[in-house]
Design goal:
Elements (H helix, E strand, L loop, with lengths): L1 H36 L12 E4 L12 E5 L3 E2 L6 E10 L7 E12 L2 E12 L9 E6 L6 E12 L9 E2 L3 E4 L4
Antiparallel strand pairs: 1-2, 2-4, 3-4, 4-7, 5-6, 5-8, 8-9, 8-10
């Protein structure tokens, strides 16, 4: 009986170690993604999380550089039958503490034309995550029709000027009726 207890304890410790290793590997991968992607310009249809440095073109006069981010559109876990996408900002330096994030959920209406389904505007602290992002969502009329969706994010630092650049997520084709 004592041996089976030791085997169970060993298995439990092994699982904890596996979770720690997975979590550590995810943190390393995320750090590599953020570090490597922060120097790339925003692309409309390629990266999974688009990043744009709003002060890149005016770096010499920019006192408060930051990075705007647009997460891919996805089916909501909290609200079944709904799609959503998030916009947020990461502060690189400077005294800014808040930014007004405008997140647009767009659907391709034909060819290269995009129609905004919903816009969310929220003033948030930097970082992303719950409470630090603006979420645009859409209640699907059915789960059969397939459409292309994307998120466009504009981050405006509160109290400071910034450039016109915006972050744009990947285009995602999802089963979600819009009419």
């Amino acid at each position: 009986m004592f041996e089976s207890f030791l085997e169970a304890e060993y298995a439990t410790q092994e699982r904890k170690l596996f979770v720690r290793i997975r979590t550590g590997a995810a943190a390393v991968a995320l750090a590599a993604l953020v570090t490597g992607a922060s120097t790339m310009p925003a692309q409309a249809d390629e990266p999974s999380v688009s990043i744009t440095d709003s002060y890149r073109e005016e770096a010499s006069s920019a006192p408060h550089p930051f990075v705007a981010r647009a997460e891919n559109v996805h089916h909501s876990h909290d609200y079944p039958g709904t799609i959503s996408g998030h916009g947020f900002w990461i502060k690189n330096s400077g005294p800014a503490t808040h930014a007004k994030i405008t997140t647009e959920l767009q659907v391709r209406a034909g060819g290269n034309w995009w129609t905004t389904l919903n816009t969310a505007v929220k003033t948030v602290r930097p970082g992303g995550g719950r409470g630090k992002r603006a979420t645009a969502s859409w209640k699907c009329t059915n789960m059969i029709a397939r459409h292309d969706f994307r998120i466009v994010v504009d981050a405006d630092i509160v109290g400071f000027p910034d450039g016109p650049s915006k972050a744009v997520s990947n285009v995602r084709t999802l089963h979600c009726g819009v009419t």
